[in-house]
Amino acid sequence: MAARIGEEVTTDFRSQLRDVTAERHRILDGRMGGIDLSTPCGRATFQEIHDIANARVLAACDGQAAEATDYVRRAAPVTRGAGSDRPAPADRPIHPDAVAYVMLGSQLGLAFLRKSVPEALRTGILAREPEIAAWRSFLARIVATPPEGELRDRILADSTRVFDIFLDATDQILSAHHLRTE
């Protein structure tokens, strides 16, 4: 059994990140999976969710996202002002490693989804190629120097906060479009 926040470490850090975020990831995938990317409306809804969530994540991490910093900052011009009406509540900035794990890891899922959309219709988030080198660099770093103690617990908790930002944006937009999929 994998360690949870505050428990003794019994698995590698990447597995811990995956385990602690698994339920939120499953819920998010279920909600987003109900969006029909074959239609202009579906693609626009999908993009709007990402615009809002990316802006909130950028604000919540103060623009610091470890190996994902360039990726997150490149999203800023597209999302400037998006979601500012509902900022992510935070008593402290989200740890850069939590952002890197979720944002770089999500690119792999996006790469899979892109394949379902004809190339000529891939815009915005669906047009971006995954930054595999950044993902591999992040993974190599957390294997070589995994965080311990309170830092480990913070990164695990903050990873769930990133998913919560995406879940909130998804619920906001799907509710507005009456496309709730759960």
Task: Set down the secondary structure blueprint.
Blueprint: H1 13-33, H2 40-60, H3 69-79, H4 96-114, H5 132-144, H6 149-176
Which properties best describe this structure?
182 residues, single chain, globular, Heme Oxygenase, Chain A
Structural overview:
The chain is an all-alpha fold. The protein has one domain: Up-down Bundle (Heme Oxygenase, Chain A), CATH 1.20.910.10. It is globular. The two termini are 29 Å apart. About 3% of the residues have low confidence.
Could you give the order of the helices and strands? HHHHHH
Mean pLDDT: 86
Helix fraction, binned, reads: 55-70%
C-alpha Rg (nearest Å): 16 Å
What class would the helix/strand composition place it in?
A: mainly alpha
| CATH fold category name | Heme Oxygenase, Chain A
Give the DSSP E fraction (strand runs of 2 or more residues): under 5%
CATH homologous superfamily placement: Heme oxygenase-like
Give the biggest beta sheet: none
Q: Which geometry do the CA atoms define? A: globular
